[in-house]
Design brief:
The protein has 442 residues and is an alpha/beta fold. The chain has two domains: 228 residues, Aspartate Aminotransferase, domain 2; 108 residues, Alpha-Beta Complex (Aspartate Aminotransferase, domain 1). The protein is 40% helix and 16% strand. The chain contains 15 helices and 17 strands. Helix 1 crosses helix 4, helix 3 packs antiparallel against helix 11 and helix 13 packs across helix 15. It starts with 13 loop residues before the first helix and ends with a helix. Bound molecules: ligand C6P. The site of ligand C6P has 17 residues, from helix 5. Ligand C6P binds next to helix 5.
Amino acid sequence: MNPRSADRGTADRGPQTADRRNAEEVPLPSAVRGPRSDYDVERIRRDFPILSRSIRGRKLVYLDNAATTQKPQVVIDRLVRYYTEENSNVHRGVHYLSEVATADYEAARTTVKKFINARDEKEIVFTRGTTEAINLVAQSWGRVNVREGDEILITAIEHHSNIVPWQLLCEEKKARLRVAPVDDDGDIILDELARLLTPRTRLVAVGHASNALGTINPIAEIIAMAHANGSLVLVDGAQGVPHMSIDVQALDCDFYAFSGHKVYAPTGIGALYGKESILDAMPPWQGGGDMILSVSFEKTTFNALPYKFEAGTPNIEGVIGLAAALDYVSLAGIENIAAHEHDLLTYATGRLREVDGLRIIGTAKRKAAVISFTLEGVHPHDIGTILDREGVAIRTGHHCAQPLMMRFNIPATSRASFAMYNTRAEADALITGLHKVIEVFR
Ligand code: C6P
């Protein structure tokens, strides 16, 4: 609920009501519940309608999950139900539909809170995604807390979304952006990171897992190092949330950002977790409806957390779809998903290593199921185009991580990224496709 919002109706269904509704109404995924040995990928695949379509006359093999994931029927159905039965604005009406939409919207906040084990709903701010969440912190927290000569520390492995917002802030504040290097495997060099932590380091911004290489960064260690130095930590969790269990309290990070569309939810929705005391001290970022308590031409007072950071009509359908997606993942079991994806990573890596002239970029010990590679004598875009003719969808290019590509002296890679519904047979299809690429070019 948004009890302090000045322009909201009175009725308060409470998150519990909606929680119960969700529990009753979200159908169980056909994903088999229980331990790893029960993980039935074929049943999971049947939950994702798009996986049964063909592309250019071939069965779709979708290996571009780091870009965005496909959506299960429960999420699609939830969106349809929202628009056919519940559509209304939230926090604003006394009428029935607005109450239902508000209850579902706030119940979704509880779902996100539980999914990442935040302490309180106040610590969950809905955003358009990871990018917007990081910009929110850079603009709101950064403008107040970063001064001339201060430093923001990032790493060489970051996505542009965790580089450019800090660059903009540093330019504005005459602060310094420092970058911890990575080694040839794609692991952050922790000794160097420690050396770059100085009394001026206000914040460390680091990805949980690399979208371009797959490296899972030792963020617990980095957070401890940063805190010992008196610096805050923001974790870019875009590639963390879909692949591993997240506990923001155990991690003790100050901010954690993620996107719904990478975890089977719709596009245009994501969340920023922030510790309550830190969010509370931050000024609003955007102004408008819902983020205020009262407005006059002389003075505006602001709403409580998290509404202070949710100006304007939010992406209600996205929030509700996000909750459905997280429920789906929880029922399948994030640990089961992680184990399944790890099996695919190991299998596909082994098979790719057999391909003549193929070089895997990113060989860290701990990896999410993302494999970047180059193929001698063939441009990544040609690889992507030929694979596409075979129905195999991968991403080629710089993966919004241009500095990382420069670190490895390459303009681009081809990237196969796996999700809960992929199979070893699909990894085989990738290999078969790569042999066709080789036939064309050699
Ligand atoms: N990476 C990829 O193909 P948005 O666009 O806000 O949902 O997420 C941005 C983002 C931030 N950090 C990381 C680590 C990411 O992987 C992404 C999105 C996609 O790799 C699209 S560029």
